[in-house]
Amino acid sequence: MQNVAQGWLVLRMTDSALLLGIVAASASLPVLLLSVPAGALADQIPRRTVLLAAHASGIVLALLLAGLTFTNTVEVWHIIVLAALSGATRAIEAPARQAFTIEMVGKEDLLNAIALNSTMFNTARTLGPAAAGLLVAAAGEGPAFLLNGLSYLAVIVALLMMRLPPFTAPALSRRRDQLREGLQYVWHEPTVRTLLLMAGGLCLFGYLYIPLLPVFARNVFHTDAEGLGWLAAANGGGALLAALFLAQFS
Known about the structure:
It is built from ten helices and no strands. The chain is mainly alpha-helical.
């Protein structure tokens, strides 16, 4: 929801594809810089604590942008800064969330948990943008930011209700070696290295259209925010259908 409303807001304010790219870059750069140390952090402190802090930050950032939008005081630099902070939050949250999956279900049910998580993730990628497009078209960007911020509350409540085994942090000497060992493993394991290079290439060259979807929606397809929402929803819908199709051959 946030990305659809944010992209439409930037285009409406600036009419600039360049600034759409700058906003997207400001959100992606922290992910590139912080993901590796964030993975080490997720091994040092309870993952639920990391996730609670990340989602609380998500509430603050979304509600701040909603407030700026409702009061008509929002400027492009506000969006760039908030996008960068949101990217930093996402960089810290993602490794903890993935490791938390194992902590919740154990290794014996991990494959089923990954499949369920992928299904829910792509379902959200389908429904969220579509809902955002409808909401922005009907009421503006502010309500979409507000609803996105409030949606984090459900995640926080669910995290607080979970019963988890006690967390055991690694020894201090072990912590110092984890980051180095992780990088060495990636470098010396051909399969993992190839997968990372493929993922990096896909992100670099295959996802360039996503920040420009508002431009395509308005200038190419001559539609409004609702049309943008359906365009963005098609991304998640395609991923969901592909996953269901491929699952029949596994």
